[in-house]
């Protein structure tokens, strides 16, 4: 998938001279994500991988050297979206019916099958706001409630206070602070250095 994406965009050396041309949107948190990062050189820490949790074995490869007409104040780029075809598993079974292990069956078949039997391709336009680009610099702002630093313009102004997303929208957090009861039950290890629990009403 990653090799095909680079090929379609004319990117020959994604980890070398072309390393600043590519941003990749990945739609699943499985092994394909790691493989795409290895092949393309795109990394989350470099802001060159964008994760969209759609549960699809698909990725969109964006060429930053191919700008299109901007959308409002947001640059738009030419990209190719590639999705794995569900029918490729059946093709693997047809090619290697004598192999019982499905993973082996698919690995062998995927080496031989043409791209048209493995992937659906689609040319797409992808808007990427400047603040989402690799290398974007922004002021570091402190949340008025928790005191943690906020990067990349992710702060929210509510009631005259600048808050991080977790404090502005606590119901949308991916975590929940321990209550006093939970803290008492689970505090045997590291109790001396643990942060204080939230009160029962928080």
UniProtKB/TrEMBL annotation:
<keyword id="KW-0479">Metal-binding</keyword>
<dbReference type="InterPro" id="IPR053194">
    <property type="entry name" value="tRNA_methyltr_O"/>
</dbReference>
<dbReference type="GO" id="GO:0018493">
    <property type="term" value="F:formylmethanofuran dehydrogenase activity"/>
</dbReference>
<feature type="domain" description="Zinc finger DksA/TraR C4-type">
    <location>
        <begin position="140"/>
        <end position="170"/>
    </location>
</feature>
<dbReference type="Pfam" id="PF01258">
    <property type="entry name" value="zf-dskA_traR"/>
</dbReference>
<dbReference type="InterPro" id="IPR000962">
    <property type="entry name" value="Znf_DskA_TraR"/>
</dbReference>
<dbReference type="GO" id="GO:0008270">
    <property type="term" value="F:zinc ion binding"/>
</dbReference>
<feature type="domain" description="Formylmethanofuran dehydrogenase subunit E">
    <location>
        <begin position="1"/>
        <end position="119"/>
    </location>
</feature>
<dbReference type="InterPro" id="IPR003814">
    <property type="entry name" value="FmdEsu_dom"/>
</dbReference>
<keyword id="KW-0560">Oxidoreductase</keyword>
<keyword id="KW-0862">Zinc</keyword>
<protein>
    <submittedName>
        <fullName>Formylmethanofuran dehydrogenase subunit E</fullName>
        <ecNumber>1.2.7.12</ecNumber>
    </submittedName>
</protein>
<keyword id="KW-0863">Zinc-finger</keyword>
<dbReference type="Pfam" id="PF02663">
    <property type="entry name" value="FmdE"/>
</dbReference>
């Amino acid at each position: 998938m990653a090799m095909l994406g680079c090929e379609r965009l004319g990117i020959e050396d994604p980890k070398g001279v072309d390393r600043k041309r590519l941003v990749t949107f990945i739609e699943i948190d499985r092994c394909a994500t790691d493989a795409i990062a290895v092949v393309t050189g795109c990394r989350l820490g470099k802001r060159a991988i964008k994760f969209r949790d759609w549960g699809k074995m698909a990725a969109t490869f964006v060429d930053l050297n191919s700008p299109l007409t901007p959308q409002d104040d947001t640059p738009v780029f030419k990209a190719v979206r590639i999705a794995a075809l569900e029918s490729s598993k059946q093709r693997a079974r047809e090619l290697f019916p004598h192999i019982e292990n499905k993973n082996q069956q698919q690995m062998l078949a995927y080496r031989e099958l043409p791209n048209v039997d493995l992937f659906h391709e689609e040319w797409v336009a992808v808007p990427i706001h400047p603040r989402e680009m690799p290398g974007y610099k922004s002021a570091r702002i402190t949340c008025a409630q928790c005191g943690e630093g906020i990067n990349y313009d992710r702060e929210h102004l509510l009631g005259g206070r600048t808050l991080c997303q977790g404090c502005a929208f606590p119901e949308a957090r991916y975590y929940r602070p321990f209550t006093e009861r939970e803290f008492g039950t689970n505090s045997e290890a590291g109790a001396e250095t643990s942060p204080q629990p939230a009160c029962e009403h928080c």
